[in-house]
Structures are given as structure tokens and as C-alpha cells.
Write a structure and sequence with these properties.
The complex is a heterodimer of chains A (about 110) and B (about 120). By secondary structure, chain A is mainly beta. Chain A is built from no helices and twelve strands. By secondary structure, chain B is mainly β. Chain B is about 0% helix and about 55% strand. Classes of the chains: A mainly beta (about 110), B mainly beta (about 120). Chains A and B meet through strand 6 and strand 11 of A and strand 4, strand 5 and strand 9 of B.
Amino acid sequence: AQTVTQSQPEMSVQEAETVTLSCTYDTSENNYYLFWYKQPPSRQMILVIRQEAYKQQNATENRFSVNFQKAAKSFSLKISDSQLGDTAMYFCAFMTPNFNKFYFGSGTKLNVKP
Amino acid sequence: GAVVSQHPSRVICKSGTSVKIECRSLDFQATTMFWYRQFPKQSLMLMATSNEGSKATYEQGVEKDKFLINHASLTLSTLTVTSAHPEDSSFYICSARPVATNEKLFFGSGTQLSVL
């Protein structure tokens, strides 16, 4: 079975600063997909970034980037130049290679302070 | 981007009644739809995976007779909470995986169920 662990229940960062959210996972699969989703107070799930496990290059999307360490089964999210609109719950997620399962971590509440 | 419509957004019902939640992919065909349950300030817990035309696969601990899932077409999946009780009160979210792009998921806006 796959598990996704987020060890930081809540984090704070000053506007314009950089913050890193941690995520580890456990799987016996070799090819899989990893994601970071954002859930604002509206509770709509918003895709932030995704990474294919077979790609060594870390994914980046504007201010968002990941540090994917496959051997360590680690998948952290770095948010640069934090903005007030980044305040939300952030969930790390894992999808099995056959696309039949999609599991979320427990989430990290990020507060961006002005 | 692709749109997943989930209805109703909020429902209040009496204990013992059944509630149906619909999840529709509006501009794409969905091979697979996932149903999640989210308690306040907690994560999304996968309840079941439904594939069009076949029986849903339920996660351990989820009562399949309690939470009936139907995926009759490539654009519609429904979750029916049967004989709802106050402990079933929760936020339910669906997500759909398009046929064309396997690894992408699109989420509905969720349904807040309150059972009195």
C-alpha cells in the first residue's frame, strides 16, 4: 500500500520570502506520479505542480518548484516570492502507475503574512 | 481547462434518508472517477474508485452498501449515501481522470452534506 506523509501541519512565511513544504511517501512501485495540490478556503482543489517519477529533472511552474529525491522517496515543494494568495492548505499526492489510485497526504496549512 | 461539475454543492437531510451526489465531466470523457471524503481541517480520504461500466473499487473500511457508486457513462458518476446518519455529515469531493491524459485529474467543487 502507498502512504503519503506530510510532517508539517502548519507553516508561516513572510510575504516575498521562500518556504519549503515537505512530503515523503512510501511505495514499491518504480513508475508513478506525484502532485502538489492547493486547497484555499473555497475548498476547490487546484493543481500546483506534478512530477513523473521516471523524470529526473525537477518540475517547475513559475514560483513553484519541487525537489524530487526518488531514492529517499521525498517530494518537497518550494514556493518562492510568497504571496498573500498562496495562503491555503497544501496537499501532497501520489498516483499509482495504473492510474487507479490517488492518495493524499495529511496536508500543510500555509499562512503567508504581510 | 477541463471542468468537473459536482451537484449539489450543499445538502441538508434528515437522518434515514438517502442523498445522491452527481459528478459530471463537462468537456471530456472520464475513464475513472475518484470519490473522496474530507472532514474539517483534515485530508481527503479516498473512498472508492469507479470505472465506467464496471463496479466501483472501495477502499478498506468504506461500506459499499452505504455509499453506492454508479459510473454509467464516461461523463457521469454518482455517489448515493443511503440511510444517512449524522456521522455521514462531511464534505464529499469527486475527481475525474480524462481518457486522453491519464495522469491528470480534475476536481469537482465538492458537496457539503449535513445530516440532522
